[in-house]
Write the structure tokens for this entry.
Amino acid sequence: MQNKRTNLIKLGLFTLSGLLFLVLSLYLIGRNQQLFRASILVKTYFRHAGGLVPGNNVRYAGIQAGTVKSVKLINDTTIQLELLIDKEASKHILKNSLASIGTEGLIGNRVVNLVPGDGPAEPIQEGDEIATKKTIDTDAVLETLSVTNQNAAILSAELVQTITRFNNSSAVWKLLEDSSLAVSIKASLSNIEQASVSTKQLTAELNQVIHDLKQERGLVQHLIYDTVMSGQLERTLAQLEQTSQQTVTMTQKVNDLITGVQNEIKEGKGPANAILSDTSMTGSLHRSLSNIEKSTATFNENMTALQHNFLFRGYFRKKEKKNAKEKSN
Amino acid sequence: MTLPPNTKRFLEEAGAIAQFTGRFFREVFRPRYEWSAFIQQCYMIGYKSLPLVGLTGFIMGLVLTMQLRPSLIDYGVESELPAMVGIAIVREIGPVITALIFAGKIGSSIGAELGSMKVTEQIDAMEVSGTNPFKYLVVTRVLATTFMLPILVLLGDAISLYGAYLGVNIKATTSFSLYYTQVFNNLSFSDVLPAFVKSFFFGFAIGIIGCFKGFHSSKGTEGVGRSANSSVVLGSLMVFIIDLIAVQVTDILGFN
């Protein structure tokens, strides 16, 4: 009887441990599929599900946040996904989050990735719709690549043409093989080098000149930088203008005068005519002048005599003394 | 219509087994349940088989892991080793290996036990004394195999997964927590439940065939040996046939 009881206990232990393992594994699997956790349902819409199936994981910022509940085709271009998001995680997922379909690793299962959107927003709630982010679609990449390939084909064909023409053209080869060309190009280059060296020197000198101009108070510096002088210059110019206007007037008058004199000469009138045209007058004038000369000489003699006169001697002596005093001062 | 003798014998036997199974279902629901005999059989069939099943399961898990590793390294998915081994053990290796070991141990013992009772006319004596031998001998054993094999499969799986954990750690270092996370992350109900359900059928088939072979043992010690032998062979074969049917059914039901 005792033995039977022990057997019974052993059997019970055996059976219970087996069932416990079953229950435990079912629980662990169920926990992965969010069956025993509080969660909320949100929806999102895609044009391409990319092989997503119910039970795939939903990740928020790379952390397990829920699972895909269903993948439904609701019209010809739209696929509706229902996502079960953990209640715990949903507190931190905002309404402006973006959903995209990716893979776990390079060849792993499909996952729905949620990434935070820009700016502040409320946390998601039951029945919300999450906007989707367009991801790089492999098909689209391949399509673009196909266009690129076509372009590359056209390009290579044209390149072949160009090279063929290049090969057939003797002129190009002549140009390439001409050694004198190389020499002259070399010479040109050395000339250019020299020119550039001189240009450099010139520039340096010019710099120096400009520097000096700025520093030293020369004429040019005055001309360029002295504002007072420019005012003066302006005034001078204005005066010069005035003067030139007056000169014009004066010239006019002189002109008139000359014209008048000329007319008088022509008509044989006036003193000018008399001076220029009357020969007898010229003779008398000549005589008068010689007489004046003579009389001046006589006058000089008279004056000298006068100086020596006692009446005036005192005056001249005083004058000499005064002059001498001024000089010594 | 004349059939070849072998075919005729085969069909006869198939019909007899079907009849036997029908009789089992008739008897199982009829009152006067042999509870203590059932519990005794459960202890003998279930508990006593655990060391054998545990050892084979442990070795299977360890070996499978070591065998799979080179291929997974070739594909660069060595990190998926726990997932791979977990799915293989839970879906197929665990139930089938356990059922085969079970068929070898229990099928033969039932066949031999009932066969020797048959040849020593104990069964006839039981009938005379008023005990229903079918109920007392067959129903208890078949029920015990049906209910004990799934439990053995579950425990075998657990031990096998632990063996696989050791196997993973021979050439790499994985914490137990990461290991079971990886295993259970990659398992789903559709992996566990069909395997669990089909192990009931394995147990039932092994029990029925063992009892049938023993109950219809031919006279003499030779007959006992033959019935023990054929119950193992046929039981093992039935395990594979049921496995084949089970995978088709789960596929049709969309659990795969």
